[in-house]
Amino acid sequence: MKTSKVLFTIALGIFIATAAIGQEMTKAEKKAFKIEMKEWKKKKKSMSPEDFKVLSEEHLKLKASNAAAVGDIETLEKQVSEKDNQIIDLQKQATRMQAAYQAAQKETENLKAQLANRPAYNPDLINGEDFGIGVVFKVQVGAFRKVDLKKYADTSEDFAEEKTDDLRKYIIGNFRNYEDANILKRYLREMGVEDAWIVPYRDGVRVPLKDVLPNAKAND
């Protein structure tokens, strides 16, 4: 009597477990399930109750193990899918970074080309006119041994420093016409720069005033 109850319980457990699985079975799986049930009935007839019990318990353990394995596989597949998505995102980022790098590299090459084609710096080139060529008049405002105004001279096109021996000479202006330079000289003297005087240049070299204007007076 006890054996029959045990077998009934096992059979019921198998039925419930397989029925729960069978809810999501395909037609082929349901067909295989029916065949399996027929096999179990045959085994039940040919086996003793004790052997059938042992076999049934092993079968349930295998099904439980299989279900756990299926769950693990699904978890792993989900993890793999997430990793695949991460790889795709990283590939997209790498593509964007590569495109940005190529654009930056191209811009760098363009800048290098522009710098290579840019003419050399010419301090005498002012507003498109090269004051290093021909006769130019400038006004010297002072010559000093200790005073250093180079930082101001470097920031202005019309204010420059000339260093000779131990003196620093500072000059203002670039004039093609002597009278224009003379107006600036007189204005500076009125402002208190008593040492202001006109100095002429020919092709960037300082020359005596008489060499360019024989009739001009140095102290006008």
Verbal overview:
- The chain is 60% helix and 17% strand.
- With 220 residues, it is α+β, with helices and mostly antiparallel strands.
- The chain has 2 domains: 1-118, no CATH class; 125-212, Alpha-Beta Plaits (2-Layer Sandwich), CATH 3.30.70.
- Helix 1 packs parallel to helix 3.
- The longest helix is centred in the middle third of the chain and has 69 residues, at 49-117.
- It is rod-shaped, with a radius of gyration of 51 Å.
- It starts with a helix and ends in an 8-residue tail after the last helix.
- The model has no long low-confidence stretch (mean pLDDT 76).
Topology of helices and strands:
Elements: H1 2-22, H2 27-46, H3 49-117, E1 125-126, E2 129-130, E3 135-144, H4 150-153, E4 159-164, E5 167-175, H5 178-190, E6 197-202, E7 205-206, H6 209-212
Antiparallel strand pairs: 1-2, 3-5, 3-6, 4-5, 6-7
